[in-house]
Amino acid sequence: MSQPQQDTEWSRRDSAVKRGQLSIPSDQGNAIEVRALRSSISDAGSLMHNLSLSPSFQDRRGSRNSFGMALPIPKSPRTSRLSGSRDPASLKRDVLASQIQDMAKEKVEAAKNMAFAFDIDGVLVHGKKLIPEAARVMEVLNGDNELGIKLPYILLTNGGGKTESARVDELSGILKSPISTEQFIQSHTPMQALSEYYDTVLVCGGEGFKVRQVAEDYGFKTVVHTKDVQAWDPTISPWSQLSEEEVKQAKIRDFDNLNFDAIMVFADSRDYQTDMQIILDLLLSENGRLKTRAKNPLANQIPIYFSQGDIVFPTEHALPRLTQGAFRIAIESQYKTLTGGDLERVVYGKPELATYKYADTVIQQWMKEIHNEHTLPKNIYMIGDNPQSDICGGNMYGWNTCLVRTGVFKGGENDTNNPANFGVFANVLEAVQAAVKKELGQEFKLQWQDEEVNPVLQAGGVSAIE
User: Fold this and answer.
1) Of 117, 110, 187, nearest in space to 153 by CA
2) Mean pLDDT of 137-162
3) Do domains 98-185+358-447 and 187-305 have the same CATH topology?
4) Which CATH class is domain 98-185+358-447?
5) What are the boundaries of the region Disordered (predicted)?
């Protein structure tokens, strides 16, 4: 059917609909064509956080919290949980390395003046599966290089949903290298500063009740999980049912007389229907109390915070999967439909400026931990797989940015809207190699060799005890 014929056909069907008649089936096989009465464009399109779907370093539009609104962050990082035990071989290498470093002070200073910030999913791991090149990167940065020097690095992820210590323990096993909480930032790590502003909060996201522990560790006085609310009144979520174990773990309170100060979405929801329902109940409530409705919800909405704004993220699946940004957009659309107004919300995580400012503090603290120097390296390299968060934020903050092809990015030579200013690489190891050679010289060796620095092991060397 030609386009003019289609237009005529749709006009005829529109008239039939207005007369209360069913539209006439077309002759396209067994299908019945019924024209949609509503646009296929999402109602949430105008509500999207401009840095979540397609943020661009080249085209920055206005937004309530896009590099402008104040997002509280902690003044100092968390305490390290890195084990202090050292194996004899490592101690031996440290002694030899200190001698080499004394003779190569200029190169040592250059090494201390660079640092790396790694995204995790799609750069170092896919879910709980190691990206092979990442293990070698950890070895090089932890001292397996010609100077035997530790090159400062942090992990900067939009992931979350569990305590920093739990995630660090998990990553240390996957990466086969010890990771400290002092060099680790999850999307919600800076949100611990919000405990200075709010006492009673609703939290959701992640596995089980883990985000409740996260919020309690951050210092929030009264933490309520959405499952606690569901256990208190199962009718609040008609299509979902808690397991017996979940009911046992729930902390039921007198929610009829409890006012919530704020809502914290710390990670991806595992039960969209229940979490959305309870969140909307509070957003529409009178002074943050369940089972109430405000006369003017737009004037009485309690604050809601999302830990990050990514729409998709890489997993072990062949294609990226939806993540917290999609959940947020759904809530924004529902709120708009129910109230006619735009939802006021704050989004943390990359590419927000607050995340990068907090990262500076973490890098400085880690420099003190490994080199006893509380300084901020001048040459920081952000290595990520997502142009809209990792690269966009790094570019705006003045970091060197490296885009890898092991995660979200599957494009051409570089991303069009958010091009990585240092380049695009096949994997994280190639990115690190390029950065190290730029800062320390093309001849810099990314491997420690005892025989080259220990005279006893060199050809013709004589042991002092012979």
Assistant:
1) 117
2) 92
3) yes
4) alpha beta
5) 1-25, 53-90
* Closest CA relative to residue 314, chosen from 129, 181, 117, 44: 129
Q: How confident is the model at residue 310 (pLDDT cuts 50, 70, 90)?
A: confident
Amino acid identity, residue 95? V
Q: Which amino acid is it at 230? A: Q
Task: Give the tokens for residue 376.
Answer: 């901020």
Q: Which two tokens stand for residue 76?
A: 């100092």
Mean pLDDT, residues 202-220 taken together:
96
pLDDT one-digit tens code per residue, 20-69:
333 334 444 433 232 333 333 334 545 444 444 445 545 433 333 332 35
Q: Which of these, 215, 100, 93, lies nearest to 163 by C-alpha position?
A: 215
Cα dist from 457 to 144, 373, 448, 452, whole Å: 18, 33, 14, 8
Residue 63 CA to its chain's centroid (Å): 20
Q: What is the phi-psi region of residue 206: left when phi exceeds 0, alpha when psi lies from -120 to 50, beta otherwise?
A: left
Give backbone dihedrals phi and psi of 440, rounded to 5 degrees, phi first. -115, 0
Q: In angstroms, rounded to a whole number, what is the distance separating the alpha carbons of residues 142 and 81?
A: 17
Q: Domain segments of the chain: what residues?
A: 98-185+358-447, 187-305
Instruction: Tell me how far apart the alpha carbons of residues 130 and 186 are, in angstroms, rounded to a whole number.
Output: 18
Could you give the C-alpha distances from 31 to 27, 258, 429, in angstroms and in order?
8, 53, 52
Question: What is the number of helices (H) and of strands (E) in the chain?
Answer: 15, 15
Pick the CATH number of 187-305 from 3.90.1150.10, 3.40.50.1000, 3.40.190.120, 1.10.287.1080: 3.40.50.1000
Distance between CA atoms of 309 and 311, rounded to whole angstroms?
6
- Say how many CA atoms lie within 13 Å of 131 toward its Cβ: 26
Please tell me the distance from the alpha carbon of residue 168 to that of residue 164, in angstroms, as a whole number.
6
Question: pTM value?
Answer: 0.78
Half-sphere exposure (Cβ direction) of 94: Cα atoms closer than 13 Å = 10
Which one-letter DSSP state was computed for residue 442?
T
Percent of the chain with pLDDT over 70: 75
Q: How far is CA 253 from CA 76, 215, 227, 278, 455, in A?
A: 33, 17, 12, 15, 70
